[in-house]
């Protein structure tokens, strides 16, 4: 068995436009294609963390059987919107919370798009969560903002500006007791605290302002599917570069009533948001748009009044914000000259992963355990105190399932299938 710490952005198997750049193909190439890697646990392309690669079919079957039998404990860490609820057993610690349970069943409503929803008609699922830290948003003046009220039973509603971290963010320890596709991501969305940069479940253009908080109905499924189909084709996810989006929004707001002297001070104090040509992700703006520093003061050109100059600066910042939103991965409308395959733009760095990390896997019996380092995004931000290490989940009796063994469920499903085939 080989245990790896999978980086975010790399799929396990060749899929879509990913072939060589997948875990399986990379490991084959490193061993001169004399080795057939057999993944035992599959992480999403955007998720990082502990992953098992079996060297033989026997070992792969053995671990897969343990996973199906739920004798393997899986621990994840996530970074979510807002202040995660205090939960049961909370001792009043403003940083660390108690246990929050989510037992919403999960249904795949579009396998092609990889979209799953909380739904009573879906497969049973259970996840336990515990807040490890809460970091309020710091304004430019250094003051902290965000909701610090506690509630031991109900998840707090999403703030008025979903998809950003204006309300602060929480680092959450996750213990999935079942292994449904996107289980942690769906349950966090249902609780009203989705992973902040999740391109699907934190996408307000797909799910609307509430981000499907406490929503397990199927009333809007078709509409949600149609919206999601456009992401990655004609538009990009709106879960992008939150700090940059916030900074640009502030700049645009400041320039609404800007004078020449104000613009000069702003130009000197605010770093340019446009990419430089030294940046490997640089993409030039379309011909005719305004670049930072290209606007002269009205005194240098008598054709422009102070109001016109302020309007031009505002237009420039709006176009820069739009550029940064559009520079994500989507179809360009062009095709490969060799194979005629539709071409996509290069993904931005913010699209290569999400704030979800497979932190640890261990055997219930305690015979083996593997743990990954805490990712950088889960560490305390500059100027704030918080945990720099995440210990093992503290078991207190909630970690048991009332929904049966996965193997028994699969056996019953197979029996129903055989009966249906005979009919």
UniProtKB/TrEMBL annotation:
InterPro entries with a match to the protein in the record: PsdUridine_synth_cat_dom_sf, PsdUridine_synth_RluA-like_CS, PsdUridine_synth_RsuA/RluA, RluA_PseudoU_synthase
Keywords carried by this UniProt record: Isomerase
Catalytic EC class: isomerase
CDD domains: PseudoU_synth_ScRIB2
MF annotations from Gene Ontology: RNA binding; tRNA pseudouridine(32) synthase activity
GO process terms (BP): enzyme-directed rRNA pseudouridine synthesis
Region annotation (Disordered) ranges: 404-423
Gene behind this protein: RIB2
UniProt domain Pseudouridine synthase RsuA/RluA-like: residue ranges: 2-189
Designated name of the protein: DRAP deaminase
Record Gene3D superfamilies: Pseudouridine synthase
